[in-house]
Amino acid sequence: MFFRIKPAGSYRYLQIVHSVREGEKVRQQVIATLGRLDLLEVSGQLERLMRSGLRHCESFAVIDAQAPGEIEPVAIRRIGPDLVFARLWKESGIPEVLRSVLKARHYEFDVERAIYLTVLHRLFASGSDRAAERWREDYLIPGTEGLELHHLYRAMAFLRDTIEQVEKATAALRCNKDLIEEALFERRPGSFH
Question: Which of 92, 109, 162, 180 has the least C-beta neighbours within 10 A?
Answer without folding.
Answer: 162
